[in-house]
Write a structure and sequence with these properties.
Layout: H1 7-35, H2 44-65, H3 81-111, E1 119-120, E2 127-128, E3 139-144, H4 151-155, E4 164-166, H5 173-194, H6 204-217
Antiparallel strand pairs: 1-2, 3-4
Length: 218
Amino acid sequence: MTTRRSLSDGIEETVIAVLLGLMTVLTFANVIARFVFNSNILWALELTVFMFGWLVLLGASYAVKKHSHLGVDAIINMVSPPVRRLLGLISVACCLVFSLLLLKGSYDYWAVFADLPPTSGRWFPTGFDNSARSQSFYEVQDVPMIGVLRILEGLINYGDSYEKLPKVVPYLVLPLSMLLLVIRFTQAAIKIWRGESDRLVASHEVEDDLEDLRSGQS
């Protein structure tokens, strides 16, 4: 059975694999430093937590794309195809609204660290709140500043130097991952609307059977 891979698949899988590999290497190095050399990599734990957050949040949108989230389709399989498609549209609409709410909340949380105005409005954006206080000078606890990111000092910190990594960098994954989640649910909705799929999440056994059937017909 052959699987068509896109460029975006390769990029996302590479990023996820690199994050997982770096987490493993950094944790192992910190264990060796602690128990062999009686030392400690002070910023290892915090950086590992940040990478784990990136891994989970980016992986969530990728799992939607690959239908890898857990789903129960026993009831869906009992109804007629038109009803099945309707239920699929309802479920993806709920997920899309929820992801849009997450996108607004995550952007508003991150924006103040990037010296950007958060959106106004409780649930959905009604504009930008230019009165919000910038928090671009906030730094993380332990991870030191990286030379290549010194450009941020002039862009968002008004020329003041950072001693530690600014929070705007690790927290960027919040709006980024939520935007990807919106895109993935939108793509899923289009597929269901066009009749290319009839559900948001299918059990992997059904997917395998459908793929085998398509391969046998081609």
